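Summary for the funding panel

The consortium committed to producing paired sequence-structure records for every protein in the target list. Below we show the first two records in order, beginning with the earlier of the two.
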Amino acid sequence: MSAATFLHSLTRRSKTVSSRFWPQGHIRKAGLALTVASVVVLAACSVTPKGRYFVLSPVTTQHPVQSGVVKAVLGIGPIVFPSHLDRAQLVLRTGQNELYLRENDKWAEPLNETARRVLMQDLQDRLSPKRMEAFPWNSRDGVNWQIAVDIDNFEAQPDRTVRLNAQWKIIDFSSGAIVLSNRFDQRLKPASADSADIVATMSLLLGHFADDISGAFNQS
């Protein structure tokens, strides 16, 4: 029942009862009390919880990788996310087959966009390439190495950790050959269950993911 319907029903009942049992002066007082109660109920129903909006942030490394990639052009993408993470709300996994959406805590931009932008910044900081291009690109961009990413998990878990589980591939763009690939699967515990701490931990995991990719360039 809506607040308006509830108040209408309450008003009709009060008039019926008051006309039978209450003196006229008491009826006026009861009417005033009902008016005050109506204002309180309507005000409570109109209060909307304040929403928060989040973005990921780059994590600076103190140990940039020294490799031959400095003179190369890196192409980042595609970065593929599962459909269950492709939504505005912050997604938390509450069970093996169950998810929870925090309706008042949302991404300020699509998760795949903020993740791609931050991963590019993290890799730029670690590898210092000649230039970086975001997928899709064209032949004029002169990409030498492509980094493709498939993400399976990037959300808070039932054990109160945050998990990043993803496969990355380094591809020689001229030949299309996969030079190196690896499965990255790491969990970190945020400072609290608050969404701000969860997002901060997601940023830290993405930085560790960039460390893993950067280290591979030193081995190639």
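The next record, for a separate protein in the list, is shown here:
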Amino acid sequence: MASEISGRIAQAFNERGYSTTPIEFETSNTGNEVAYFEAEVEGGQVDVFVTSANSAQMAKKTFDANVLADKTNGMAIMNDWENNGNTVYVIRNNMANMNFVEVLDTKQSSAIHIVDQLPEQLDPVLKVLDAVSYPVQ
């Protein structure tokens, strides 16, 4: 599942004129599949991690751990959307001038973690997520 989701996200970046690196895959000792790639967006790197878990509960634990790590580092949720089993949080790191986008997809038992390096990358990232049917406004 990570390969399918990461492929759709990479394709959406490419269709908008952004280049991406080849997708790398890894399977954890718990059986979760993780896909990773980078996109070149607005003059900077965006990191995309997709974790496909064995269950929706495990995907939620991964999502919650990512959000907790962001909050523990003093970051706040700036926007959040939910729709049809999907949750999207935009978390702002003011000190590093970065955004973290956390996505939970319970239908596909997956968690997506996106890190941008520049404020102007957030809008293109959200448009990509919208294009692959994740709720953003």
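Regarding this second record: The two ends are 25 Å apart (CA to CA). The first strand starts at residue 19 and ends at 20.
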